[in-house]
Amino acid sequence: MILFPLMKNSDEPLRLLLIEDDELSREVLILQMTAQGYQVEPAESGDAALLLLEQMRHRLPDAVLTDLQLPGTSGQDLLHRLRTIMDTGTPLLAMSASQPEDKILSGFDGFLLKPFTMKQLAAALQPNVYPPSNTAPVDGPSTASPSLDEAVYLRFAGSMPPSQLQQLYALCIDDASARLGRMRLAAANADDPAYRKEAHAIKGGCSMVGATELHRLASVAEEGGLSAANHVASLNEMLSACEQLRRILVAREARAKL
To answer: What is the pTM of this model?
Structure first.
């Protein structure tokens, strides 16, 4: 069911500017939004978004959805720049894999905690049509599986061809594996902020595709940082979770071909 494909006074699709630096999260959101009838303009950073808006100045987007942790211009600085460019009344929504402090959200028109549904996005964009209660954070995973949220997987499986589904989850695993390598390097250099940053990125991307165990482990790593009792064991556990998820997906692919 398409929840909010049209503007209130137009037969054109609602045009969204999506600002997300994590490739996996960005691709998942684009897939979900376009399936609901939105027209999406993606940007991988706040600075890239500002350049894009300069090119779009004669036909600005109808709403902006931005991650709060971006390279370069982000947070309140980005919000201020967007307010000077966008039309008055244009919804500016923030999103993150973690609940930020109220002062960080000051000035935004709404906040979405990843992972969020398209119904929650529609509620944030048009609260008079979809009650604000629908924007509440998503509860825990809908399955007891330690590695993969069945409902999320089936939702993607029903909206894209098998080859694209495989590419999506391969991107998740490859992205997490690469970030784990950077976390090991950060640990070797005693760089706690870099370690937590990569863990946060893994948490955000995995939450979007229902990689529940990786999401849980990344959350623990982000919270504990290098001060945790044994971050080496934690990284090894996360790597094992990547391989477990890969095996689950291979088995599902094999069953689908039977």
So the answer is: 0.79
